[in-house]
Amino acid sequence: MRMFGLQVDISMLLEPLGFIKVLQWIFSIFAFATCGGFYGETTLLVSCKGVVNKTVTAAFAYPFRLNTVVFSEPDPERCGGTWTDSYLVGNFSSSAQFFVTLAVLVLLYCIAALVVYVGYKHVYQHNSKFPLTDLILTVIIAFLWLVSTFAWGKALADIKISTGASIISQIDSCKAPGTTCHFVSVTRMGTLNVSAVFGLLNMVLWGGNIWFVYKDTNLHNQSNKISQVVGIYSAQRI
Questions:
Q1: Distance of CA 234 to the CA centre of its chain
Q2: What whole-number distance in Å separates Cα of residue 78 and Cα of residue 150?
Q3: Is residue 172 within 8 Å of 119, Cβ to Cβ?
Q4: Residues 6+ apart with CB under 8 A from 22
Q5: C-beta of residue 210 within 8 angstroms of C-beta of residue 71
Q6: 144 CB-near residues (< 8 Å, 6+ apart)
Q7: Distance CA 62, CA 36 (A)
Q8: CA 210 to CA 155: how far, in whole Å?
Q9: What is the pLDDT along the chain (238 residues), one digit of tens a residue?
């Protein structure tokens, strides 16, 4: 089938190499979308001078620089001057950005690889450099998924702590005489949990794909030839 003047062979998508690459493309989209698109709030109830059970919130989102997120003021008088700017604790941007950036780069690589698989299958199969490059990149990406997923998982656990009930003990204004603070809620982080799960799935998928990519390289062909030669030599000696 020809498309835009290019000979397209979609049969490659039905083979393990092409089918897995499609899954990797899809999973990378879910990984960065569920992490990069998150928005949440931590809510407290504050009672102080002239204020009773006033709701204050701190809104946070990707890339989770929580130490730049300030709680809203209980009232214009700032509790009679006892309320100072109060921030969430922690900066988890490095882990989050590493995870999302990797997912985006993997998405782009998968698109490029699929174009080669479908539009230039003959070149991929007859030029040993393409499969070997594919193998090297697959190994590197599998390792990066391992590192980024565990880093993001640790950061996510810390984010839950930093935005949970324990935050009250970190707010100096809540310790002022006549001021009481009560934790109300924090946005559910189900989508962030899903992003970590997709990180694990990507790690497994890329790790498992190493074998299928390896089978298309000269390294696998050479090992088969060596095995055949050894087998023939052994048979002749018998």
A1: 50
A2: 41
A3: no
A4: 13, 110, 114
A5: no
A6: 102
A7: 5
A8: 28
A9: 554 445 566 676 778 788 999 999 999 999 999 999 999 999 999 998 888 889 999 999 999 999 999 998 888 888 888 888 889 999 999 999 999 999 999 999 999 988 888 877 777 767 778 888 889 999 999 999 999 999 999 999 999 999 999 899 888 888 888 889 999 999 999 999 999 999 999 999 999 999 988 887 876 455 444 444 444 444 445 5
Alpha helices for 120-189 (secondary structure H): 121-126, 129-162
Q: Please report where in the chains the tokens 């946070």 appear, as a residue.
A: 60
| Residue 92, Cβ density class (10 Å: 0-12 exposed, 13-18 middle, ≥19 buried) | buried
d(CA 37, CA 31): 10
The position carrying tokens 């062979």 is 9
